[in-house]
Amino acid sequence: xxxxxxxxxxxxxxxxRASLRSQRxxxxxxxxxxxxxxxxxxxxxxxxxxxxxxxxxxxxxINIHDLKQLVKAHDRRVSFESVAHQGQITxxxxxxxxxxxxxxxxxxxxxxxxxxxxxxxxxxxx
Length: 126
Description:
Blueprint: E1 2-3, H1 6-38, H2 44-84, E2 88-89, H3 91-124
Antiparallel strand pairs: 1-2
C-alpha cells in the first residue's frame, strides 16, 4: 500500500478529463473546418492532404476517447481503494497513475503537432 494524497490524484484525473474534452471539441472544430476546405476547388495534392487530416482527426478522436475512459476507470479505482484501504492505494494503482500522466502528455504532444500542421495546411490553402 502507498500513502498518497488521494485528492491530488482525483484532481489530476479530473484535469486530464477536462483537457481531453477540450481537445475533442477542438478536433471536432478542425473537422468542420476541413469539411469547408474540402468543398472548395483543390488540387490533387491538397485533396490528399484533406484525406490525411480527415483520417488523423478520426484516429485522434478515438485516442482521446480511449484515454478518457482509462482515466475515468482509474479515478474510480483510486476512489475505491482509498475507501477500502483507509486512504491508501496499491503501488500498482500509483504506477498506473504515472503511466496515465505519461500517456496524456504524449497524446497532448501529438495533438499539438497535428494542430500546428493543420493550421499550416489551412494557411497554405487559403
